[in-house]
Design brief:
The complex is a heterodimer of chains A (495) and B (419). With 495 residues, chain A is of the alpha+beta class. Helices cover 30% and strands 23% of the residues of chain A. The chains are: A alpha+beta (495), B alpha/beta (419). β24 of chain A pairs antiparallel with β10 (153-154) of chain B.
């Protein structure tokens, strides 16, 4: 077992850890990020919806809470960040639908709040909210249920791909000198006077500062160091992705407090889900969907957009959030130094974590400074990443040019999403080690057939590129192999 | 051959595409291209190593690869030009095709006519919306079939199969022969989804338990499948509380229906039949888009490959005629519609001017019935099942009974005898 020494150790490769690592890479600092999984962004980040910049619903937050400040501060940071990292970002706006006169109370309260808070809590560059009437609503969203008499329009809401953002943040952090260790699980933490000794499955790591960004495991990690004793309440919702052929049913996200939301995704699919009200308490680390939630979510979605059909669902998953405090719900987060252990900093963002992450990262720099870390600017910091080619988005000429450079771009492997072998090889070159790793980088298997056709072909490419046998290729690391035996192996075992 | 000279372009080189291309060539089209994204001709026939192919078409009991090989040879002999490893990514209303391959990059051309022969795909777990966790080990039966028969791997050794479609039952037998244990085949309906011969030869002969009126309620396991919960369902296909039981397994195979692959057709503006999921066609297999024809499983999911071949030959012949003559004589105006216990009929319109075969499926199994084609024909059938296609030939004798101006022919499946 090896021993590693690092100044700052970040535990967790979700959106929080990734954003912090990348922010730290602006400075001359010896920092390491450990992730227990085979890939980054595969915990709560993956389970989040594709909403990047929350809009009006953050007005529900109470102004005195830390989380609210982080979310509001994070809102205007997201678009420039995505530009630097070459990540798609699209403002689609949201429409909170109003059913009747009685239903006007809530939107009116929101609009009042917006006026009061704009420039005070909410950054001034956030665009104002406004009412739209029935006719405008029908013109903008002809497929929305005709019973709604209007909506509150929030132009700020944007969609993105949180897993791709996490991957790009980590890639950029690595490029700027941060050390990243995958499949490295923290098992125990010993607290010394000047440092921590962190036991992992890959050996021990000594560090002076420890950032606990372990997502849904944040309390487990905190307890290892007796750093804090907070409970986490996992809250489950249900989200479904629909075929791209119905991606145009709505142009903006449409929602009500009661019925959840229906929205286009950044990739052109349709997406619906029920918001995780605090009544949806789940078991810790249980990410399984259940029929009751699924049925309820579909009914709610059909209330908003009657043309939604179960037939068009291509995938469904749980939305998963851990709340720090069940009573207070999503208004509270835990970003700050442990109450008992100096230099042990928790970074549990709460909801909506994606949106708040850039602000959390900036705040983390200040916290580290206050805890005594000397941070000098990294003169070689390069904020830019280049996204890998997206074949399906290229013009005909660009397609031909790319194929001429590398014929593997002329070999379409995933027919639903038109993903080529060239892209898959590039994804593997950029760190994909599993079927999911390839999928989250360039989308093969995310389409309507869900990998039925391309699965065996991508398994082959992974096997070839990584130099491992096909039966060792996994869906998402660990024991998640698709192929357990070679032909005739079972028969020979029975003989 | 230059791209601009292409008469007929067939998209997809499975059994449908091969039959269409061969017939188009035989019917006089000079330049016929057969476009296929895979490395070889034959489509899924390669992985169907079981027998039962060609019993009607060749009067012989062949395996899938054998059946495919006969057509592959004919493709070569007749002078059809295969365009392999070429993925059609675009089809416009005016039949302009865009495709990519590793050799020429992006190619674009406008053939005189097009045959859609893209086949179908399997419904996935997502489309079924089965609740539970998301582990490895949940595969469609066809994907498992490819792994076992082509790639040389076995997905797991304790298997539950959801759905009793033909591929599912065939894979139950195949996995058993490979040394795996099939714990159960679970079917939500009161009857199997595939052919009787497969129920007998694949399930009964291997003592594989079949649970009708049951479904998978939940999938368990974080990394790999560990178990599934199976429950009985009521008449509305809803699980009956208290009937759930957990079956330990490492693999769940899905055989729960096939969906015609019509993304290109939609791009071209082809109108689809909401029941079949395939194009609306007349008896020449022409879609609503001039010069665009369809045949095989892309049009409607067939029971036997023999029927796929025959239907696609018709599409290929019509496409050749269109390419040569430049137009199509009078389109079918008479709507053929599904009445009592008929789920769908293909073609959806006929002209009444030429002999034609109607392909249809019933909605529910029934015995002692008669199929009534409007007032022009009646045919007694001992038993009908949704899994078996009914073929009814309308010849001049029947068609001349059509009254002038008939707009619709309703097909009914009626009870015979006393009641």
């Amino acid at each position: 077992m090896s021993q590693l020494q690092t100044e700052v150790l970040i535990i967790g490769g979700g959106i929080g850890g990734a954003a912090i690592a990348r922010e730290l890479s602006r400075y001359k600092v010896d920092a390491t990020l450990v992730e227990k999984g085979v890939d980054v962004g595969q915990g709560i980040t993956k389970y989040s919806s594709t909403i990047m910049c929350q809009g009006a619903n953050v007005l529900e937050f109470r102004s005195e809470y830390h989380n609210s400040r982080l979310v509001w501060a994070g809102m205007p940071m997201m678009e420039p960040l995505c530009q630097e990292l070459d990540i798609p970002f699209k403002k689609i706006g949201s429409l909170e639908l109003i059913e009747n006169q009685a239903g006007m109370k809530h939107p009116e309260k929101m609009l009042r709040r917006f006026k009061d808070w704009h420039g005070k809590y909410l950054p001034a560059d956030i665009e104002p909210l406004r009412f739209i009437d029935r006719d405008t609503l029908r013109e903008w969203e002809p497929n929305v249920n005709k019973k709604y008499i209007g909506a509150v329009y929030d132009p700020n809401l944007a969609v993105n791909d949180p897993v791709r953002l996490t991957i790009a943040l980590v890639d950029n952090a690595v490029k700027n000198g941060i050390n990243v260790m995958m499949e490295t699980e923290v098992l125990d933490i010993a607290v010394g006077t000047d440092d921590f000794e962190v036991q992992t499955n890959k050996g021990s790591i000594k560090c002076r500062y420890l950032i606990n960004a372990a997502g849904e495991y944040v309390n487990d990690v905190a307890r290892m160091a007796d750093a804090d004793d907070f409970a986490m309440y996992p809250v489950k919702s249900y989200q479904a992705v629909l075929d791209k052929k119905v991606g145009g049913l709505v142009n903006s996200m449409v929602l009500t407090m009661k019925n959840g939301m229906v929205s286009p995704t950044i990739h052109g699919n349709l997406f619906f889900g029920i918001s995780p009200g605090t009544q949806r308490l789940g078991r810790a680390h249980d990410h399984s969907t259940d029929k009751k939630l699924a049925d309820a979510a579909l009914k709610h979605a059909q209330t908003l957009v009657p043309a939604i059909s179960e037939k068009d669902i291509i995938n469904a998953f749980v939305g998963f959030i851990v709340f720090r405090n069940f009573e207070v719900g999503w208004h509270e987060c835990t970003v700050g130094v442990s109450r008992w252990v100096p230099r042990f900093i928790n970074a549990s963002i709460g909801f909506p974590g994606i949106c708040a992450s850039p602000a959390v990262a900036k705040e983390m720099i200040e916290i580290l400074r206050q805890e005594g870390l000397n941070l000098e600017e990294n003169p070689h910091f390069d904020p830019y990443q280049k996204a890998m080619p997206d074949f399906s988005e290229l013009s005909d000429e660009e397609k031909s040019r790319l194929i001429a450079q590398d014929p593997r771009y002329g070999h379409v492997v995933c027919r639903c999403e038109t993903v080529t072998e060239g892209e898959i090889v590039e994804a593997i070159k950029r760190g994909a080690r599993t079927l999911d790793g390839v999928k989250f980088r360039c989308r093969p298997g995310m389409g309507r057939c869900q990998g039925g056709f391309c699965g065996p072909r991508i398994t082959k490419i992974l096997s070839r590129e990584l130099g491992i046998p096909e039966e060792e290729v996994t869906k998402k690391g660990g024991e998640s192999r698709h192929l357990m035996y070679k032909s005739k192996e079972l028969l020979e075992a029975q003989r | 051959m230059k791209l601009k000279d292409i008469d007929v372009a067939v998209i997809g080189a499975g059994p449908a595409g091969m039959a269409a291309a061969i017939r188009a060539k035989e019917a006089g089209a000079e330049h016929v291209v057969l476009m296929e994204r895979a490395e070889e001709l034959g489509g899924l026939l390669h992985q169907c190593v079981h027998n039962g192919f060609g019993v009607l078409y060749f009067n012989e009991d062949l395996t899938g690869p054998e059946y495919g090989h006969r057509f592959i040879e004919k493709v070569m002999d007749t002078g059809v030009t295969p365009l392999l490893e070429t993925m059609v990514v675009r089809l416009d209303k005016d039949r302009q095709i865009g495709a990519v391959n590793t050799r020429e990059g992006f190619i674009s051309f406008r053939p005189k006519s097009v045959v859609l022969a893209m086949g179908c795909r399997e419904r996935s777990r997502g489309a079924l919306n089965i609740p539970g966790s998301r582990p490895a080990g949940v595969l469609t039966a066809g994907t498992a079939q490819r792994f076992v028969n082509v790639e040389g791997f076995i997905p797991g050794k304790k298997v539950v199969i959801l759905g009793s479609g033909d591929i599912g039952m065939i894979m139950a037998r195949r996995m058993t022969l490979e040394g795996a244990r099939v714990e159960a085949v679970v079917e939500i309906l009161p009857y199997i989804g595939g052919l009787i011969r497969n129920e007998v030869q694949c399930l009964h002969d291997f003592d594989i338990p079949l649970f009708l009126n049951h479904t998978v309620m939940q999938i368990h396991g974080e990394e790999r499948v560990e178990a599934v919960t199976v429950a009985q369902v009521d008449g509305n296909r809803q699980p009956i509380p208290g009937t759930g039981r957990t079956i330990e397994c490492d693999t769940l195979l899905l055989s729960v229906g096939l969906i015609p692959e019509n993304e290109l057709s939609i791009m071209a503006g082809v109108q689809l039949d909401p029941v079949t999921g395939g194009a609306l066609v007349d008896e020449t297999r022409q879609t609503n888009i001039n010069g665009v024809f369809a045949g095989g499983n892309v049009l409607h999911v067939h029971d036997l490959v023999d029927n796929v071949s025959w239907e696609s030959e018709l599409a290929g012949e019509s496409a050749a005629r269109f390419a040569i003559e430049g137009t199509q004589e009078g389109r079918g105006k008479i709507r053929v519609t599904a009445g009592r216990n008929i789920r769908y009929v293909v073609p959806q319109t006929i002209s009444g001017a030429r002999d034609t075969t109607l392909y249809m499926r019933v909605a529910e199994p029934e015995e002692n019935v008669r199929i009534k084609i409007g007032d022009i024909m009646t045919k007694g059938v001992r038993a009908v099942k949704p899994s078996e296609m009914l073929k009814i030939e309308l010849t001049d004798t029947h068609l001349k009974k059509l009254e002038e101006g008939t707009g619709e022919l309703v097909i009914n499946c009626e009870k015979r005898g006393g009641k």
